[in-house]
Design goal:
Low-confidence stretches: 210-214, 218-232
Number of helices: 5
Strand content: 15-25%
Order of helices and strands: EEHHEEEEEEHHHEEE
Oligomer: single chain
CATH topology: Phosphatase 2c, domain 1
Number of strands: 11
Number of domains: 1
Shape: globular
CATH superfamily: PPM-type phosphatase domain
Mean pLDDT: 85
Length: 232
């Protein structure tokens, strides 16, 4: 998450595969985000920079590696932009939509079909950000990877992420720490231990009072090296 003159911008993503190659992909995409978030006035400009960084990274790997699977590498990316009045806009490349915690429930921020992940195919010529309402004072956004939704119990049932987030939304006080603790405790209980897939969470909360003009976001993340993490 980065506070810029264009608004607060955040990124979360999921890299195909594991190991050193995945870490290098994370570094390439995140490095591009750190610069583009400040340099680009429009959110679509940030995404174009990430797309070019990913393409350059894959070309360099293809030049030095003989593995044909390099051409199949991809990364899902969700870009969020929170404007001074709390308006939220997003560009989603194959990533799960975040959930909005209002204090009484948790709802998906949007249900629009995402763009394709970065890597295999070029993005469309037009990239209009998706308007996602406003993040009001006291509300929180929970960004996550698909490992949080697809964790299974011993009977093969998926983790009920939305239900757990609704439980977390009703906690008092609603803080990133309490949300994170509620989700991870329930997840470990559901999967009877660490889930098989990596899980990343990023919680953003608007802590401004109504009289203030810009959202002050408190954040907390839990992630592994195989996932894009917020810059910090």
């Amino acid at each position: 998450m980065i506070a810029t003159e264009h608004g607060v911008r955040a990124v979360i993503g999921d890299v195909r595969g594991h190991g050193l190659d995945a870490v290098r992909t994370v570094a390439a995409v995140l490095g591009s985000f750190r610069e583009a978030a400040h340099d680009e006035a429009r959110l679509e400009g940030v995404l174009r920079r990430l797309e070019r960084a990913m393409a350059r990274h894959l070309r360099e790997r293809a030049h030095t590696e003989s593995d044909p699977a390099v051409a199949e590498e991809f990364v899902t990316v969700l870009l969020l932009e929170i404007l001074p009045d709390g308006e939220v806009r997003a560009l989603n490349c194959g990533h799960p939509w975040p959930h909005l915690l209002t204090g009484v429930r948790a709802d998906p921020l949007d249900r629009t079909d995402p763009l394709p992940p970065l890597g295999p195919f070029p993005l469309p010529r037009e990239l209009p950000p998706v308007p996602c309402g406003r993040l009001l004072p006291g509300e929180a956004l929970v960004l996550h990877t698909d490992g949080a939704e697809e964790a299974r119990d011993t009977e093969g049932r998926f983790f009920p992420l939305c239900d757990v987030l609704t439980e977390a939304a009703r906690a008092r006080p609603l803080t990133p720490q309490t949300v994170l603790r509620t989700v991870l405790t329930a997840l470990l209980r559901h999967s009877a231990g660490p889930p098989k897939d990596d899980v990343a969470l990023l919680i953003l909360r608007n802590e401004r009072h109504v009289r203030h003009s810009a959202p002050a976001l408190r954040h907390r993340a839990h992630a592994t090296a195989d996932h894009l993490q917020y810059p910090g």
